[in-house]
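Need the bound structure for adenosine-5'-triphosphate, inputs here:
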Amino acid sequence: MNSMFELHNLLPAIINIAKEYLGVKRISLMLIEDEYLKMYAHAGFEVDHSSVHIRLGDGIAGKVAKTGIEVMSNKTDTENDVLGYQTSSFMSVPLKKGDKILGVLNLTDKEDDFFTEDDVKIARYIASQCALGVDRFNMYSDMRKSENLRVIGTLNSAIAHDIKNLLNIVQSYLELMALEKDIKPEMQEYIDAIHSEVKRIHGLTMDILDFSRQRVSISIETFRISELFDEIRKHANIMTRDTDIHVDVKVLDDIIMKVDRGKIFRVIFNLVSNAIDALPGTGTVRLTAGKDGDICVIKVRDTGKGICSENIKKLFLPFFTSGKTKGTGLGLAIVKMIVEAHCGTIDVDSEEGVYTEFTVRIPFNYESFKELHRQG
Ligand SMILES: Nc1ncnc2c1ncn2[C@@H]1O[C@H](COP(=O)(O)OP(=O)(O)OP(=O)(O)O)[C@@H](O)[C@H]1O
Ligand SMILES: [Mg+2]
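Answer from helper R.:
Posting the output first, comments after.
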């Protein structure tokens, strides 16, 4: 069994054979989906019951699905109501794979009015074969899903990798252009703008690359935090050029960092970009860096729209975006991945309509921090 198509054919075929073999008037096979038992195949009913679904625990079938305990009754005096039919005998057997209950096989009205012990054994065997089929099908679906995800991941990585290399070339040409003498000031402005946008695309590409790999590789560089902040300031100034947004960058302690410079740049750049996006064209973004023991504390605070408590919970989930037309919702998910890969933490504090402040805490000497914590 390796397709939905085969499962759709196989189960009705099994229950039709079972109906004939056991000599029952009606038979149905229901599978568990979320909190419900849903009709999968049935035979012997005058009306179509394909859309029937029963909450787990309700009715005989619902109880069998919940408890996994089979029910068999040969009642000739009192009649039972099953799906609107008065039945004199019925049997409901769970479909099990190990301890897991997958569904229920229901048989009603034995032609000669009662089920024997042999009938119960046969029904159990049929239910076990159906369960085997369903389980194989589920396994196959899971395999296909993870295989698809793997292929998409590889494809993403390949594309992101090529884009990154092409952007490096564009960036080199921009740097060559900037070396030219006698560049008109407005031309310099255009070059700066292209530079900034290329940097953004580069960052986004790297984000996708890290995200599809689901791991962050760290390559350590030594640099001063003031020097990284200067670069951020330059980009932020270009991004806010035609606005009344003031970007205030303050280095409280000029720490010597030994971390992945490119990745920490992306963390701060993502947070500053979000802060700028949260402002209605006017307001302040304040970026600070200070020292707390062996930790570098970076804060990005804005006087923007703030974040409601409902959204705060979802902030770091991949693909969560709100109030933006072009947001991918990957920014903060990746920020968190990078910070945690550096043994750091990220926290957010916000008041709707007043401010938002993100605090990133990372050890400024990643390797010695890791070494220290390995020993102690
Ligand atoms: N400083 C902030 N002020 C207000 N809301 C914010 C702030 N930072 C993030 N958010 C909210 O969190 C959401 C998720 O941010 P995230 O950076 O993950 O994705 P995004 O900015 O929407 O898209 P992108 O992937 O392009 O960064 C944003 O859409 C925004 O609603
Ligand atoms: Mg963002």
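Comments: DSSP finds nine helices and 15 strands in the chain. Residues 270, 274-275, 278, 302, 304-305, 307, 315, 320-324, 327-333, 356 surround adenosine-5'-triphosphate (ligand 1) (CB under 6 Å).
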